[in-house]
Amino acid sequence: MGDLWLGSLTIFLTIMGSQGQLKTGFYSSSCPNAEATVRSTVQSYFSKDPTIAPALLRLHFHDCFVQGCDGSVLIAGSSAERNALPNAGLRGFEVIEDAKSQLEAKCPGVVSCADILALAARDAVDLSDGPSWSVATGRRDGRVSLSSQASNLPSPLDPISVQRKKFSDKGLDDHDLVTLVGAHTIGQTECRFFSYRLYNFTTTGNSDPTIDQDFLGQLKALCPNKGDGLKRVSLDIDSPTKFDVSFFKNVRDGNAILESDQRLWGDPATQSIVQNYAGNIRGLLGLRFNYEFPKAMVKLSSVEVKTGTQGEIRKVCSKVNLY
Known about the structure:
Radius of gyration: 19 Å
Number of helices: 13
Structural class: mainly alpha
Strand content: under 5%
Largest sheet: 2 strands, antiparallel
Oligomer: single chain
């Protein structure tokens, strides 16, 4: 119990230290039902379609990597972030807009879209049998959203050196990288993002040799050559809607779908972290991931946040306010 308490204290101090003016319960007086409203909205969509959970997690992740966690990915427009190639397939915008419209009716101009997204990501993990955690709030919404600024988003094609640089630029280390990529345990992708690994890995018509041969057959059945590139495939075939450590076992066994995920096994530093999570003692190691993932999310959710008088509180998440 002592270790657990000290760990909780460490997480709390990390939150307070790294997040500046963010704090847990930021809306407790100004909009007391803010978190409950977001939760019930996510729950409502999740009950109809559990794949909305990874969509919301990805939305928050992609938001934080471009101009920090400021809701800029939610802004619509031909040159906006959400139209950048790395953001292809992003979805879940309607969940955030739904929660926002309810909160605007209850507490107009109080709760930011950036905070709604951070809360929704937490709730999505919790609803998928993953851990829950306290989300410090008080983020403000950014007023700039440019697709040209999305080039620093991690890509399925990135070697470890590039992944490491992109994460480190946001203050995230190797441990954070592997832990956050573990969110792929409930993730999905589209055939177009990995079919080259199956049919044309080195432009000579062969497949990626790091893919387990039995698994290669499964993937080819799911994504036939020159088939529907938009077909969605779960990144964790074993337990696609359950937040667990089987994703790491897949990486260890050559059963990762994205090249960037499989590369985690090819680098000594990231391999040891994957091995720690994959392990052999299922229950114990599941608890370790469930403890580490919230800590990594707290760090991610505090990347380059806007607080105080920076930015604004958008009235509608898809467009900046007009003054």
